[in-house]
């Protein structure tokens, strides 16, 4: 069996359950998701994609029907009111919740729903005579849950992070029963599914905590409420609130339907809603109030009471079309769960069995189980890749390579520092040290002292296909595996028959993959020997003189190079190097990643005539002045642009250059240059540098030095890759 065979649909079908939704999934994707052609979108846990029929039907709906403000009483307003009420009911139905027991409060998202609970929960502070409320949360929680601490600590309430193991391990033998004497309210929050690892936590925790059987409820008298953060869970899984009577369930709708964004809900048990204390009262929430006196009576309806102001009623109308489209395409959440779990399980099995030529595993996957069942694992895979010496490859490198292959993944810590720390083994001290080393959430500093600061997450949606897995696995094999690619067959076989008992890979030798057959590897190649080839990478002893052989400047960012032999240097490096850039119709900078034809434009700087020449084959050469400072204020528009996240002030170079570029690139473009009155400072300044360095439109630094050996290595790698490609 070769890699091609392992990466085929036949293999997939042998190991994973039902695929698709009865019809031809490829057809559905081509019809409803034509925009992802050529893209491997694997970031559904961050935002899934909406089908075209959703927005088409929605557009038709709101273009043909008049929806007024639901707080008015005109016919159009009543229609809106009734439609919104019907959709509330539909949301409850989706979660098998009875309107007698649950209400839907629309919010701007899951985070807003969490904030609503945080700010209205009747926290009781700790005093000398009373222990007070507890705010407990599983350490594997989203930032938006941990952030409730900001509210509770200000109110003197004790926050208790609880690790996933503690909940059951520290439970008491005897149920603690109803507490009639002490009514102190406590809140326990946990995710139904981790947005980091896709692990699903037992829904039975809800009743366990409410009945004070589980830790920490068993240790604290009072009334325990459970907030089940379902934002990640509900995107690919059914949730039945009859089975798990959580008190507060926050969700965001774009994670289920892809559209609309900016709309979420707090699904709340009606009896739990009764204890919430709201202070602010906005439009629509009052039964009556006086403007001149402190008199306010809230509305009897739970939703009305907590929805300050006018709800986003047109977005709520879109939910109807969201449900329609979802059920029409998939038949329901159970099917979605089966389908997406199969994709995740297959990807897990292959990625965790993939080995380098020397037998070292390629990926370290952050998971508790072995993807044995959709009841314990969602469609998320979180991992770091390793080189053939077992060293972690930083997530930024993986992210960048993936982008070149148009594979969209998420990297970093995923707004879940708790899970990140626990899986990656980052201590609190390390976290602080990483910050000192300049690493902040969301940046590209992926390794500090060789230790990862985050990881890579791949997640599936209901329209993900087997081809997505295939593309991703081929990408890993092609870019990050030292050839020949091997697969640990023993591990793979084990995983195929995995039961709940988790089993690690045993010491068996991985099999070498060839294009024809499998060979048992006779012996593991000692790693030391293969290391020698590269020499001692950390050696500082070699102090040799280097010779500068060529100088290239790139007058227009991302366009062709211009070779020079001696060249003036200015405060921003080589004069006119990356002084200009091309932007699209929306003013967004074009790079070769977005527009490959840029490399065919060959700009030249002609100093004697003070001109920048634009040339490309089959185009007339045109010129723009090198310095147009004098004209800046009169004929050229100053605009704001972004380069690598930095704000830069730029000036437009006029219509002639714009139409030349638009002709050549086949889309409306303009040529702009950095404003001469603007200084942009280098972000990643070495800590030793005392003065700051100013930059042109370059991404990171004034100069980029490349040695011949690196260029030759790349050339060699490219030609060998063409000779015997392992993958398609
Ligand atoms: C996405 C997510 C959130 C936050 O949702 P927003 O839409 O950003 O408000 C909270 N918790 C979990 C588990 C999530 O996956």
Automatic annotation (TrEMBL):
The keyword Ribosomal protein does not apply. One of its GO terms (biological process) is Mo-molybdopterin cofactor biosynthetic process. One of its GO terms (molecular function) is molybdenum cofactor sulfurtransferase activity. Its cofactor is pyridoxal 5'-phosphate. Its EC number is 2.8.1.9. The modification N6-(pyridoxal phosphate)lysine is found at residue 255. Gene3D superfamilies: Type I PLP-dependent aspartate aminotransferase-like (Major domain) (3.40.640.10). The active site is at residue 415. Transmembrane segments: none annotated. It catalyses: Mo-molybdopterin + L-cysteine + AH2 = thio-Mo-molybdopterin + L-alanine + A + H2O. InterPro entries: Aminotrans_V_dom (IPR000192), MoCo_sulfurase (IPR028886), MOCOS_middle (IPR005303), PyrdxlP-dep_Trfase (IPR015424), PyrdxlP-dep_Trfase_major (IPR015421). Residues 547-668 form the Molybdenum cofactor sulfurase middle domain. Keywords: Molybdenum cofactor biosynthesis, Pyridoxal phosphate, Transferase. PANTHER family: MOLYBDENUM COFACTOR SULFURASE, MOLYBDOPTERIN COFACTOR SULFURASE MOSC. Belongs to the class-V pyridoxal-phosphate-dependent aminotransferase family. MOCOS subfamily. HAMAP family: MOCOS. This is Molybdenum cofactor sulfurase.
């Amino acid at each position: 069996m070769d890699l091609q065979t392992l990466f085929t649909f036949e293999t997939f079908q042998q190991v994973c359950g039902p695929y698709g939704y009865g019809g031809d999934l490829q057809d559905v994707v081509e019809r409803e998701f034509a925009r992802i052609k050529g893209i491997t979108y694997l970031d559904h846990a961050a935002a899934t994609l909406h089908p075209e029929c959703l927005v088409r039907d929605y557009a038709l709906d709101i273009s043909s029907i008049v929806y007024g403000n639901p707080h008015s009483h005109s016919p159009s307003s009543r229609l809106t009111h009734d439609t919104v009420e019907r959709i509330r009911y539909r949301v409850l139905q989706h979660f098998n919740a009875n309107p007698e027991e649950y209400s839907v409060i629309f919010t701007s998202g899951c985070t807003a729903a969490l904030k609503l609970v945080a700010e209205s929960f009747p926290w009781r502070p700790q005093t000398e005579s009373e222990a007070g409320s507890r705010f407990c949360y599983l350490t594997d929680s989203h930032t938006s849950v941990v952030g409730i601490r900001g509210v509770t600590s200000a109110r003197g309430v004790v926050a208790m992070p609880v690790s996933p193991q503690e909940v059951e391990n520290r439970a008491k033998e005897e149920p603690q029963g109803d507490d009639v004497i002490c009514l102190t309210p406590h809140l326990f929050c946990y995710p139904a599914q981790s947005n980091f690892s896709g692990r699903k936590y037992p829904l039975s925790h809800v009743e366990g905590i409410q009945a004070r059987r589980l830790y920490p409820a068993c240790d604290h008298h009072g009334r325990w409420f459970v907030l089940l953060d379902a934002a990640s869970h509900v995107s690919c899984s059914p949730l039945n609130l009859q089975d798990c009577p959580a008190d507060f369930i926050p969700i965001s709708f774009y994670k289920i339907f892809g559209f609309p964004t900016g709309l979420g809900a707090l699904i709340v048990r009606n009896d739990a809603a009764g204890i919430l204390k709201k202070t602010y009262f906005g439009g629509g929430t009052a039964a009556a109030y006086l403007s001149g006196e402190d008199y306010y009576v809230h509305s009897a309806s739970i939703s009305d009471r907590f929805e300050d102001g006018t709800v986003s009623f047109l977005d709520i109308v879109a939910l109807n079309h969201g449900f329609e489209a979802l059920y029409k395409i998939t038949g329901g959440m159970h099917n979605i769960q089966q389908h997406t779990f199969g994709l995740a399980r297959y990807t897990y099995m292959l990625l965790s069995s993939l080995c380098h030529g020397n037998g070292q595993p390629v990926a370290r996957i952050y998971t508790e189980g072995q993807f044995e069942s959709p009841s314990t694992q969602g469609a998320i895979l979180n991992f770091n890749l390793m080189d053939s010496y077992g060293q972690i490859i930083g997530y930024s490198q993986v992210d960048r390579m993936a982008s070149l292959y148009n594979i969209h993944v998420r990297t970093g810590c995923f707004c879940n520092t708790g899970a990140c720390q626990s899986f990656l083994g980052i201590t609190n001290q390390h976290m602080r040290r990483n910050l000192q080393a300049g690493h902040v959430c969301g940046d590209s500093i992926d390794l500090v002292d060789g230790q990862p600061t985050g990881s890579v997450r791949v997640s599936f949606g209901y329209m993900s296909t087997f081809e997505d897995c295939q593309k991703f696995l081929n990408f890993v094999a092609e870019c990050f595996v030292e050839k020949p690619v091997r697969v640990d067959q023993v591990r793979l076989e084990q995983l195929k028959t995995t039961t709940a008992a988790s089993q690690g890979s045993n010491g068996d030798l991985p099999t070498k993959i060839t294009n024809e057959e499998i060979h048992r590897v006779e012996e593991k190649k000692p790693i030391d020997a293969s290391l020698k080839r590269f020499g001692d990478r950390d050696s500082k002893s070699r102090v040799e003189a280097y010779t500068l052989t060529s100088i290239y400047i790139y007058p227009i960012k991302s366009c062709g190079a211009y070779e020079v032999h001696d060249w003036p240097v200015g405060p921003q490096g080589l004069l006119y190097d990356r002084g200009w850039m091309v932007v699209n119709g929306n003013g967004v900078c074009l790079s070769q990643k977005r527009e490959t034809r840029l490399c065919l434009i060959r700009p030249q700087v002609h100093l004697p005539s003070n001109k920048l020449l634009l040339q490309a084959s089959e185009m007339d050469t045109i010129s723009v002045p090198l310095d147009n400072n004098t004209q800046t204020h009169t004929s050229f528009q100053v605009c704001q642009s972004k380069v690598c996240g930095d704000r830069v002030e730029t000036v437009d170079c006029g219509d002639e250059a714009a139409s030349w570029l638009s002709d050549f690139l086949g889309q409306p473009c303009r040529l702009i240059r950095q404003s001469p009155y603007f200084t942009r400072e280098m972000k990643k300044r070495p800590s030793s540098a005392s003065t700051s360095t100013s930059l042109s439109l370059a991404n990171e630094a004034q100069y980029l030095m490349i040695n011949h050996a690196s260029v030759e290595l790349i050339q060699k790698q490219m030609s060998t890759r063409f000779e015997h490609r392992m993958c398609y």
